[in-house]
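does this look right to u?? S-adenosylmethionine version
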Amino acid sequence: MISSLASILRGAAHALRNPRRLATLAAEPAGEREEAYQREATALFGGVPRSVPFEGFLNSRGDALSAFTFLDDTSTVADLLLLRALVSRYGARTMLEIGTFRGESALAVASAGANVVTLSLPDEVMLARNAEPSWVEAHRTLSAGHPNITHAFGDSAVLDTNPYREWADILFIDGDHSRGAIEVDTRRFWDTRSRRVGAVVWHDAFFSPLVPRWEVLAGIAAGVPAVYRSQIVHVSNTLCLAWLPDGDSMPSVSRSYVPRVVYSVNVAPVLGWTSSKQPTAELVPPIPREAPATSR
Ligand SMILES: C[S@@+](CC[C@H](N)C(=O)[O-])C[C@H]1O[C@@H](n2cnc3c(N)ncnc32)[C@H](O)[C@@H]1O
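got this back:
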C-alpha cells in the first residue's frame, strides 16, 4: 500500500516536470499500467535485454567528469562515463541528444571531444505546460557557452529531423520518458544515426542498474526497427539500453546485487564555478519522496 502510494506520488511529481504525462496518469491504475508495459516489453524483447559489462568500456587509466551536480533528473556518473567511453571507443565525432536539461550529459560528451547538438523544449513551452520554474531555470546551466555544444529547441515529436540525417555518431534519447514518446523519438530519430558509427543510447531504461523501467523498455522495443531489437543491450551498472556497432560480440553478465568490480571515486567541488542563473524561488511544490524502505 505504502509502495503503491509512493509510486503514485512519484508519478505525480514526475508529471509536474513532464506535463504531458498528466493525462495518462489519471486514466489507469499505476500497477496495471506497469504490468501491461512489462508484458509488452517482455514479448517484444523476449525478456529484459542482456547486460554487457560496463567495465569493458573503461580504459585502464580511468576517466573523470569535469562537472556533475549530484542533483535530480540528470544521468548517473556511470551513464556519463559510458557516453564518454563511446566517444573514444568508436572515435565518435558527433552526438545528437534529445533532452538537454542542465547540460550535464552534453558537457560530459563535448569535453571528451565530440560536437554535440542537444535538443529540449523551449523554456516558454515548458512554463506554459506548468513545469516547475526552477526546473526550467536549470536548463543549460552547465552547457551554455561551450564551443562544442549547440542548443536546439523544439518538440522531438514534430521537429524536422532531416537536417540531422546520418549525422549522429551517437544518438542519446533522454527526453520525454512516456511509453508513446519513447517509441516516437526512437522511430523519428533512427535515421539521424551516422553510417560510420550510429550508436544509440536510451537513458532511463532502468530505474536503477538492477531495476527495469518497463514503460521505457516497452517504448524502445516498439520504436526500434525489428531487425535491431535482438541486438539491444543493457550496459551493466547504468540506466542505459544501447544499440552498439559491436554489441553482439560483447560478453553477457548477470544482473546481481553482488559486485563484479569496484571503482575508486574522487570528488571535489569545481573551484570558481558559478551559475549564470541564480534560483529565483524555492522549489515549489516539494517533491514527494518515497517512504523509507524498511526491508528489501
Ligand atoms: C531527464 S532531462 C535530460 C537530462 C540530460 N540528458 C542529462 O543527462 O543531464 C529531460 C529533458 O528532456 C526535455 N524534453 C522533454 N520532452 C521533450 C520533447 N518532447 N522534445 C524535446 N525535449 C524534451 C526536457 O526539456 C529536459 O530538458
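The longest strand covers residues 115-120. idk if thats expected tbh
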